[in-house]
Please model this.
Amino acid sequence: MSSKDPEITRREFKHGKVAYGFQWNRTHHENLGKHDGDLAALWAHLTTITSGKVPNEPFSDPFFARASSLKLPKMNAAKKAAMKNRFIRAGSVNRIEESDLIEKLRDYHRATNDLTYNADHKILREFLYNDPSTIALEVPVWSDRYRLSGHIDLLRYVGGTVEVCDYKPGPLQSTGNRFLESIPQIAAYGEMMAHHLAGTLRSALDAPLLPKIRCCIFDTHACWEFGAEMFVVLLESGKISGF
Model:
């Protein structure tokens, strides 16, 4: 391995009938920092995953739900539009049409000569190798409290905040509905990651009590950002189904 090659740790997890390829760019993580704050807590957590200390029960027990199965209540198109507009007006969701995630994703499509701008999830490997803010792919998360589990597509660290990102490709005309329907899933990922990081020895790592986590849903058209606390807000208001 040359001095320019990143150090990437890989581990495959067979969860259910699907194999998930966890990948951690340790070089990016070290360059961002690993001794203080949330980055230190994240380093400790990813080290645990690398060692294989991931419980099997949350991913195999039928009484644990997959985060990807979480949905908003069934509603007609008018109610969906009203909910989306309410989230945006209240600032609960920040809708961004030009972000570094979108620009990098478009660049990676061009670099791989994929002018569909609708590539599958393999395109995320470009982030792992070429985006200094990207730390890991396919990160397993789980929660005994909520009896949930799942895998985060893309984990980044930007501006002092851990970004839990999910790539949802599709046509431009369906972006709004596609992203809206995905909020419970990605918010659950953010909440579970918050619990993992808060569960480390945060005082010893000189970290604040609560980790700073931002959830992102993105494709080549847009990016929606919101806080991990969205999960609890939706859950307590009865707006999540799928458990």
Notes: Residues 8-236 form one domain.
